[in-house]
Each structure stands twice: as structure tokens, then as C-alpha cells.
# Entry
Amino acid sequence: MARVELSKKACSVNPLKMSQPIGGALAFLGLNKCMPLLHGSQGCTSFGLVLFVRHFREAIPMQTTAMSEVSTVLGGFENVEQAILTIANRTKPEVIGICSTGVTEVKGDDVDGFLKLVRQNHPELDHIKLVYVSTPDFEGALEDGWRKAVTRMVEQLVDTPPPGAAREPNRVNILPGSHLTPGDLDELRDICEAFGLEPTFLPDLSGSLDGHMPEDFTPTTIGGASVNDIAGMGRAAFTIAIGEQMREAAVALEAKTGVPFRVFDRLTGLAPNDALMALLMKISGRPAPNKIKRQRSQLLDAMLDGHFSFGGKTIAVGAEPDLLYGITSFLTEMGATVGAAVTSTQSPILHKVPVEEVLVGDLEDFEHRAKGMDLLVTHSHGRQASERLRIPLFRYGLPTFDRLGAAHRVSVGYRGTRSLIFDIGNVFMSELHEATPDTWADNLASHREGSHDDTQTAAH
Amino acid sequence: MSTVANKIQDVFNEPGCEINQAKGAKERKKGCSKALQPGGAAGGCAFDGAKIALQPITDVAHLVHGPIACEGNSWDNRHSSSSGSKLYRMSFTTDMSEQDVIFGGEKRLWKSIKEIVDKYAPPAVFVYQTCVPAMIGDDIDAVCKKASEKFGTPCIPVQAPGFVGSKSLGNKLGGEALLDHVIGTQEPDYTTPYDINIIGEYNLVGELWQVKPLLDELGIRILASISGDAKYHEVARSHRAKAAMMVCSRAMINVARKMEERYGIPFFEGSFYGIGDMSDTLRQMAALLVKQGAPDDIIARTEAVIEREEKKAWAAIATFRERLLGKRVLLITGGVKSWSMVAALQEGGMEIAGTSVKKSTKEDKDKIKEIMGQDAHMIEDMKPREMYAMLKSAKADIMLSGGRSQFVALKAKMPWLDINQERHYAYAGYVGMVELVRQIDKALSNPVWQQVRTAAPWDEVSWEERADEANAADAAALAANAEAKTKADRAKILCNCSGVETGFVEDIIRANKLTRAEDVAGYVKIGTGCKSCAPHLDALLERINGTDVVPANSNKAA
# Structure
């Protein structure tokens, strides 16, 4: 039972956190033929766009209502209307996903009201879905924006099946949290298909941001969950939600369609995947396929091979709540101790993280707590702390802008858990130092000297 | 808020900017950037621009006052290098919460400044205003003033909330903060007749260091670089320089011009890109210093360095030149790079398939024409599919652009090279030019292009063929439908500077029976900007009136 502490600082130094609106926009990027639209200043969109381009190394469709000083004071309706018209003309989307920002929330724009007016004035746009979600920048973090956007998608895009309508026994819905990569979704699809099940992902970044050569020029998203697929989610036999953040959407989906659900708070590690396979066996009525059995056996072998490297290590982790919970549980199960856990926003899952204390804070707090540990695990912004502390960094989460393949890292399922053991274990193995006659003498000396910071920025 | 409004007015009144000066007082008030189009805009905001311009000052703490979006989504995204302090790479933000929005964020800002001063003891704290605190009325000027007195550390307010305008306006507003609060606040220990300021160079991937050794050799001292690899005290003492160089872009022209006005420091505009331009820059720098009283032997020494360096650079390039001769380059960039790069590429033996002029000024466009001739293919704004068509039809071999358009090239299986802010290679000075050519050669000669262009064993039609078909179908549909074609032709922009459509001009010519380009200008503002529309206007007049017309720009006109 972890204690959740809030940083008491006024100034956030080296933020771990990213904003809610871009979390919402990221969720909309998992819909097919969609254009995410941030209702705010140009920079709100531009910063998010650059961040995603650096992480995914893909073209990112994302637009702005380009609020100026004047429109911010006098009203944003015209900007919203014009943005929708321009997007409809230029990019012909099926969905426009609209997220508010700090600037339009402070002003108090009634976007739901705006959209009603747009609908009235422009019947020619009836074929385009407009999904709006309120995501002020001054609350929550990326994970919260994703959570709210997916819930809104369920509320607005899923059809309620007629009473007595038959379910399709081989169809399952999967609601993945923002912490899963396109590679993770591909892995889950493979797993479901191995049981003869057809999964519908909402949202589905594996279709849109998995780094493939496009079939055509499309200024909107290419691939992802289509409006049609989403509308039919009420016909599925079961819903699997991954991450505590997806509970809200799963509840909304059940309320609307009656599809029962189960929330997996993580899918990294042996036990949660055993539970997943048991559930899939039950839903599908089939035994586990040999491929899956073999993968479990390979994971057990990797755990045995890897436990030498993980055992006794102390690790600092900085990540959004669901990602933090998943990786910390996994590291603990491999014999390591997570000595510092820092996160970006509040979540019920934080109390379950196997550490004494979780701090809602920034990477300065993280760096301060990580001194003397064996490994840092956080996104690419941890690289400066890694340099200063001379502790290796395992890049995990968004943004990972200084390594290739961030979208394809897999850490769910038996196979994903196995590759995580290899990736992290290899960092430990490459850090092994050969002993010299002076090793232990040096060690004593360095203890006397204290820390080895050499830049003025480390003057805490 | 009124101070921001005044600042913006002031920037738009910039006498160093001919475009602003050419406008009427009323028009000037509206500012220089085109209104940003909702749903069709993607660039950065004024805050972004101010941060870009000032963050290369390496030893100060850059504190962003606003909710997490402004800094949390964007920090650590530019490769501006430092030879000393790394403090500028750390990120500081007030990360405003809902409580701050309701009760005001000044208290949190005050405490944040205090925490930074206590923990990091920087020579100064730069405080950036963003949209949300600007809206709720947080007075960062007042907080900074009080904090400077109380903590004994200069706190510099940077008034550039995102919604006041574009990135380039933000650059200038960043410059204004330096002019108002930093420049002239300290005195240098000593001065020399060879002290210069370099303004508008941000030392991305260390480009300043490709040039500095030559200046060192000539005995020219960079008193302050504003702001690449700068220290706070250098900027504070920069008012004692003898001369200044404004690097290419007009981003910080207000700083150069106001320093001339206030402190009598003359400036010239130069570029570090391309061998010829680099030599010109050194010559101008030496000449300006001599004019300002430096001993004139520096001129001969400069010529000697130029001769030696050019010889060295050409020899290094010669090995590549043979392989690159005749290769065609599509250049999608903005502002000054649309021409400074052109010169550089031509020196490398390459041809220019087209260059974008999206953020270029009239001077930039003039320079492109000077270098490339009247046929210069200048591209205003492009959709990805058009860019692809351009890559194909212009038979370009490689695209050079910023990171955001890289996928247009890569997904079209075309070589691409990053020449914008996120690049990892430095292209300034003589050595940088050799590096650029080396990088282009590396991109073009990679065997990967052969492989990725082969069809999959199951593919009947490639997507490139489908795209070509789609483009051809569009063209055929237009050709078949006379009405649609006329409509499309009439909708084509005739004059990029004023955005006037061809049909509009055509109607004016017909209605008033005009025969001369000058007469047309009397009815509609056209041909008065970059003049790249002149041949098109002549062609239009010719089409309507037959051949007997007086061409534009002719001296026969009154």
C-alpha cells in the first residue's frame, strides 16, 4: 500500500508531465480518418504535434482553432466553426475530435453549445462526427486527457443495440490505456486471434501510428478504429480494459450496451497474463493454443535467466500512473527494488504500486531521489539526470525521442514481458565492471568524497 | 496586457522592416503576420518564438509561467549548444493549477523564482508570460521587478503570450525583453576595436563554433552573441560593441536596429551559409570594423583567410562535386534559408528543382531571383500530395526541409535531409558547407533507396502509381470540363504577395480595357511586392489584348 505524496514545490523543474489536451488528441489519433483539433492558441497544437512526431517518427495530423488575443476575449465560436469547415473541406475526415485547452477553458467557451450551432448552420456536415472533450491544461496530465477522450468516444460513437439483439460470441472489445504502444496492441491482437477471437480496439494506435508505408495520401489519420467498428462495439461478447484509466470508459460502454467488462490493471508480468489467458479461454471456449503455451514456457525461462541481473538492484521509476504501476510491479517481481517512484497525476492505482511512497512530482524530485541507484527508468527527458548522476537510463514511455522504435516496444503478454526482461537485463549486463585490486578501496574513498556532481546545476 | 499591446505596436513600427514601412498606419497596426487560419495553421506561437530566441542564453534559468502544456510538452527539443553552463537545458515552469487560475498565479510565480534563486543561483531568471496567466491578469512585470529587488537577481519579464501572434513575432518580443531589461545593464571589463555582436544566431548544433575560430584568428572578438552560446553578462555588456552582424533572418532586426539607434552600433546583414556568403560576411565585418575605427590591416588579413579557407573548402567539396553534379534539390524551408541554402547548393554542383518562400520576406524573394533567375520556382504553401507531385514532376533527387515534412519525402521513398532546427549536423561557415555536401552525398548514395523502391511480390500497382493516377485523373477531369478548368485557372493566385487571384485581375483588365501592367496596379495592388508575378501579369495581358502591350517594369511607363 503506497503512500501518495504531492510535491510541495511552487516551481516544477524538468517536468515529467505532459498536458491533458494532447492526451485527448493522442486518443483521437487512434481513430481512422480523424482530425484531432485543439481549441486554443497555435502553440498548444504545435508543441503536441512536434512531441508526437519526435516520438512516433510519423506525420501527425493535428489542427488548431488558432485563437488570437482578440478571439480569446470576444469569443471562440467563429474559430471553432471556421476550423471545422476548413478541416471538412481540406481533409474530408469522418471524425473531428475536439479538445479544449487552458486558454479556452479560462475564457469559458461553451463548446458543446458551439457544436449545436455548427450543426444547425451546416447540415452539409452531418456525415462528420464531432466529438468534444473538455481538457484544460491546468488540470491532470496526458493520461487524464486520454481517459476522458475515450469515455466521450464511447458515449458519442457507440450505438445502443436494440433490445434482445444477439451478441457475436467471438467479438471482444479492447480498451487500451495511453501507456500501451502500437506494438503492444499488435501483440494483444495476435493473442486474441490465437483464441479465435476478433478484437475491436478503441482507440487503435496500432493502425495509425505503427510506422508503415501508407496506401494513399491522406491528410487525416490513416488506419485505426473506424466509426463503423466503434458503432458496433455493443454487439461484442466482452470488453477488456487495460489500465485503471480505462475503467471509466468500460463502465460507460457497459451502461450503454450491457457488454460485461473486466479491467486488467496491467498486462506486464506472469500473473496478469495468466489471468488474461484464463479469461480468453473462458470467453472463446477454446483451450490455450500451443503457441501461447510455448510463449509462457519461454517467459519462465527468461525469468530464470534474468533474475541474476535484476536481483538486489535498486531502480528509480518516473512514469504516468498506469505505466508506473505496471513496470514497478514487474521489476519488483523480478527481484529488484523500486527505490523511487515519481508520477505525473493522481490515480486510484497509485496506492497499489509496490513501493512505500509515490510522489506526484517532476524529474528534479526523481533525480534527487535516484542518487546512488542502479538504474533510471523514465522517458527520454530523463537523459539529463542520467548524465549528471552517471546512472544508466532505460527509456520507457512517451516521449522517447532519442531512440528508434518507441512505437514498437512490446511489454504486454508473455512475449512482451520476456523482451522487457532482455532489454532491461542487457542494460545491467553492459554496466558490469570488472574488479581491480583497487575496486573496494576506491569504493571506500568515493564514499568519503560524497557525490560526484560537477555542474553548477546540481547545486541542490 | 497593455504593455504587450504597446510592444507589439512598437515592433510593427520597426523602421528597419521595409514591409511594415510600406504599409499605411492603419494597416501596420494589424501587424505583419497573416491572420492565422483556424483549421489550417500549424506553426508555433509567440511564446514559442520568444523562447527560441532567448533560451540559447545558457547560464540563466528560463521559467515558463503557465499551465503544463507550454513547457511540459516542449522542453528539451532544440539542439542549441553551450560551451559552459548547462542550466538553460533544465526546464522550469510554474505548472499552474486550477487554484492558480482562480486565485491568480502571481504568488506561485514569486515562490518559483525564489526556489530557483535559492537552489540554482543563476545570474538571472527569465520569466515567460503565456496565454492563461495573461488572461487572468497576472502581472509578471510587477512580480519580476519586486523579485529582482528582493532576491538581488535580475528577473526579466518576457511578454509574449502565445495568442498575440506567430513565432516570428515572438522572436522580436524576446528581443524587446533584452532591449528593455538586459542590454546596457553591465559594463565590460575592457573593450577592443574589434568587438562585435552577432545577432540572431542561436548556435544550433554548435554552428557558431564553425565560424568563431576564424574570427579568433582575425582578432575579432564576439562581445556578445545574441543569443547562441551566450552568457547573461555578455548580453548585458553588448552595448559596447563597435559593430554588429545580423545573421540572415529578420527575426531580431529590432534588436540590431535599436542598438544602432541607442548606442550607435552599426550593423550589416550577413549569412554563414555557403562559401561565397561566408566570405562576403567576413569582408563586410572587417570593413565595418575599420569604418568604426579599427586599424585597416585587418582587411588584408581577412582576404588572406578567405583565400586560404575557400581553397580548402573547394578542395574538400571537389571529391563530392563530381557525384553530385546535376542532382536536383527540392528545398522546403522558410525565410532566409530559402536563398542562403540555394547559393550553397549551387556551389556544390546541384540544381534547384524548387524552393519554398513561405516565411520569406520580399528581400528573401528578390535574392532568390537574383541567384536563380526569373524562372525560380518559388513555392508558397504546399499540401503533401502536391509536394509529392513536385518531387516527381520536377524530377528532384532529394528534399531538404524541416523535420515535420520529412515524411512526405520518406513515404514517397525519396532521400531527405534535415536542415531545420532539429538537425544534428552543423552547416555554417566553410567547414559547414563541406559537411552539408557530405550529408547530401551520404543521403543520395545510400543503397537503401534501391531496395525500398522494389515492389512487393504480391503488388500489382504501387501506391506511387495510384497517386500518379489520381493526380493525372484530377488534371484530366479539369481538361475535360472547360467550365471547371476556367474556374480553376481563375482561382490561381496571380500575385503571392497580395494574394490576388487571376480571375479578379482578368475582370479588371477586361472591364477597364487595360493594356499596361502599370495601369493594372492602379486598380489592384499587384506587382508592387516581390515582382515575381510580373511575367504572369504580362502573359495575362497578352492573352487578353493580343501582343501589343507594354511589359511590366518597363521604363516607358510614366
